Amino acid sequence: MRIRAISVVTAALLLTSACAGGPATTREKGALTGAAIGAGTGAIIGSQTGDAGTGALIGGAIGGVSGALVGGAIQEQQQQRVGGGVPSPVPPGATAYPQPSAGISVPGQYLGDPTRGELANATRWRVAVFIDGDPGQQAPPPAVWLGPNEAQPANLDIGQHRIIAQAFVDTQFGPRLVGRYDKTIAVDPRSTGWNLRFGEGDFR
Question: Quick check: pTM over 0.70?
Answer without folding.
Answer: no
